[in-house]
Amino acid sequence: MTQKTINSSPRRPLSLRQLLGIAHDGDPLWDQVRAMQLQASQQFLSLKMAMSIVYASCLALTLRDAYGVAALAAWCGLVIAASIACHNALRSEELGGARGRARVQSIWAATAVLAIPNLLWMIPAIFLTDLTNADQALTVFLVSTAMMASTVLLFSAPVMCLTQLGLLTGALITGLLLKSNLLNAAVVAGFAACMASVIVQHARAFIAARLDEAELKDKNATITLLLREYEEAQGDWLWQIDSEGRLVHLTDRMAGMLGREPDDLVGRHFVTLIAGGDDEAAMRPLALKTLAYQIESQAPFTDLVVPVMIDEQPRWWQLSAQPIVDEDGIHRGFRGVGSDITEARLSEDKINRMARYDALTGLPNRALLMDGLEEALIRAHRLRRVCALMFIDLDRFKSINDTLGHQIGDKLLCEVAHRIEDSTDDGHRIGRLGGDEFAIVVREADDDKAVIELGERLIDRLSDTYEIDGHKLSIGASIGIAFGPSDGASAHNLIRSADLALYRAKDAGRGVVRRYLPEMHREAEERRQLETELRSALKNGELTLAYQPIIASHTQKIEGFEALLRWTHPALGEVPPDKFVPIAEEAGLITSIGEWVIRSACAEAVNWPDNIRLAINLSPLQFANPNLTTVILSSLSKNGLSPTRLEVEITEGVFLAENAYTLATLHQLEAIGVRIALDDFGTGYSSLGYLRKANFSKIKIDRSFVRGAAQNSDESVAIIRAIVAMAGSLGMETTAEGAETEEEYESVRDLGCGQVQGFFFSHPMSAAQANALVSEPEGEPNVVRRNFG
C-alpha cells in the first residue's frame, strides 16, 4: 500500500494574522499549531538565555570605562535576572504549550514576558551618544548579534521574534540618529528588514508544516477513535505483519483473545502463533495451510476462516487482509482485520447437525441417510458390488405411545436406536426416518443371506421386553430389504423397493423379514390404480351391499343379516373385499365409505320384520372417528330403526389401535342399546382380555375352528366348547362363521353354538332377495333355502 500525502490539495497563503499566530482563537487546529510554536521556541530558551548573559557580560566589560562599573554591573545583573525569569516563565505549563493547545492570549503573554529583557537591551542601544566610535560600533555589533541570534532561535514564534526585533531595531536606530549617524541607522534598518523577511519566510514554512502535522494528528486521532468504536461495536480487531510474517502491530482486543499482552506478541510469527505451536501437527488444518500460502504468495484474502488453538481449546477466527507495498513496489507485509466467530461457527455446526441428525435418537436423519445410500450405490456401481437398504417399522408402538404418553414413547425409541446400533457393524449407516421407522444402509451386501439373517436377529432383539420408567413394554418389528443396484439403480428406486418389501412384511402378519421381489412393484401399481378408481367408486354407484343370513342353528330360522360391502368394477368386475377394503383403510376412504354402509344398511333393514337384526362390520379406523356414534344415531333416527336391532361387529384391531375415543365410543353405543359383537374370536393374541373392554352381546367364532371341529380336531373342539361355555356364563350369544358343509354345520350345532353363518345355508344376496326372503306369508317356516341365489 503506497504512502500518500494526507492533504494533496494546495494550501492557501497564510494571512498576516495567521502567520503571527493571533488568528482563529479557539479553533482546535490552530490551538494545536500555537502550542507547537511555543514548544519549538522552548527548545532554544536555555541557549538564548546563555547567549543573552554572555552578550550582556561582554557589553558590560566593553563599556565599563564609559559608564562605570557599578552602573554596568547593575544593568548586567538586571539583564541576567530578567533572562532567567523569562526562561522560567516561558517554560511554564500556561506559556509553554505543554497542554497541547494554546490560545492567542498565551502567545501575547509569552511575547510580553520575552519583551522584558529586550527592554533592558534597549538602554545601551539608545545611549550611544556618549560613546566613542569604537565603543559605539561594538555596542551596535553586540546588540545586532543578540538580535540576529534571537531571530534564528525564535523564528517558530514570529510575533515574539518580530516584537524583539522591532524593540532592538528601534532602540539602535534611535541611538544612531541621536548621534547623527544616518548611514549606520540606514544600515541597521536594512539589516532589520532582511531579518524580518527571513523571519516571515521561516515562520511561514514552519507554520505550514505544523498545520499539516496538526491536521494529520487530528485525522489520526479521528481514525483511531473510529477504529476503536468499530472494534468495540463489531468485535473485530486490527493486525499487521511484516514481510517475514511476524506481527508488528495488533490491537488490545486481539491480544486479549490470545490471553497475552500486545508487547509479548509483537515479533511472533503470525501463522504459527494462531496455530498454537511450532510442530508440524499444528499446521495440518487446510485453512491454516491456505493462510500460510496466501501470505507467502503476497495475495489478498477475504473472510478466510481458520482454526485457532487458545489454551489448547479450539476457536475459529475470520481473517481478511491486504498486502502492504511501498512507493518502490517492495512488499512490506500485510495489514488486516480479524474477528472471533467461534459462537457463530458452533451455532452453524449445531444447525447443520440438527438438519442432518435426528434430535431424539442422535441417529442420522433421512437426509444424511440418503446421502449414505447414494455413496453406497455409487461404490456398488464402480466396484461391481452389492449394497442393501433395510427399512424397519416397529409393531404396536402406536398403542404404547397413545396409552403411556409421548415421553415413554420417546424413551422407547431411544432404546430401540441403541439396540439397532448394538446389533450392527460400524460399516452400516443407521438412521431414523421419522416416527417409528428406522433404516440401515449396508455397504457390503454381497452375501444376501447374511443381510436377511441380520434382519431376523434385529427382529428378535427388538422384540425383547423393554423396561422404561417402571413399565415393561413389548413391541415387534417388520423389516423390508432391497438390494442395489439390482432392485434399484438410484436411491429413489431402491427406497421404493425397500418400502414395498416392508409393506409385504407387514401384510404378512408383521414380525417378519421380506426382501423385494419384482412382482411387488406390479402389485403396488395395481393397488395404486385401484385406490385411484376406488375414490370415485362410491360416487359412480359401483359400491353395493350384499346381505348374508345369520341362522339359528337348531331351528334354521333367519335371525339376522350381515351387511357385506361389494365393489363391481366396470372393467375388472367383482373386486374381492379383502383386496379393496385394506386399500380404503390405507387411503383414508374407509370413514366415508363406512358411513355410507351404515346409512344404506339401516335404510334397508327397516323393511324387515322387527325380529330380524342387522349386523355391520366396523373398521378399527372407523372407531377412531369421534363422530361414529353421531352417524349411527342419525341413521337409526332417520330410518326409524330401533338401536336394539343393530349389531356392530368389531375385531381386536379396534383395541390394538386404541385411542382416547375407542372405549368412549363403545360405551356410548352400549348406552343407546346397540349390540356389540366380537368378530374372529380366538385368532388374536389376547382375545379373552378384550372381553373386559366392553359388554359384548355376541362372540363370533372364527371359521378356522369351525373347519377344525368338522375334521374332529381335538384342539378346535375344545376351543369351541370353551367359548360356548364362557359366552353362556356371561350372557352372550355365539355365532359360528364359515359353515360351508353339512358336517361343519352339524358339528358346531352339536357343540352348542346358537347361530351359524356360511355358504351351507346361503351365499350373500342382494337387498331385494333378502327382503323377499324375510317377507314370506306368516305361518310358513322362515327357513333359508340352502345355496339360495
UniProtKB/TrEMBL annotation:
Residues 300-353 form the PAC domain. It holds the Pfam family GGDEF. Residues 527-778 form the EAL domain. Residues 385-518 form the GGDEF domain. InterPro entries: Biofilm_reg_signaling, EAL_dom, EAL_sf, GGDEF_dom, Nucleotide_cyclase, PAS, PAS-assoc_C, PAS-like_dom_sf. Gene3D superfamilies: 3.30.70.270, EAL domain (3.20.20.450), PAS domain (3.30.450.20). The keyword DNA-binding does not apply. Keywords: Membrane, Transmembrane, Transmembrane helix. The chain crosses the membrane at residues 44-63, 69-86, 107-128, 140-162, 182-200. Residues 227-298 form the PAS domain. SUPFAM superfamilies: EAL domain-like, Nucleotide cyclase, PYP-like sensor domain (PAS domain). NCBIfam families: GGDEF, sensory_box. PANTHER family: BIOFILM ARCHITECTURE MAINTENANCE PROTEIN MBAA, DIGUANYLATE CYCLASE DGCP. This is Diguanylate cyclase. The lineage of its organism: Bacteria, Pseudomonadati, Pseudomonadota, Alphaproteobacteria, Sphingomonadales.
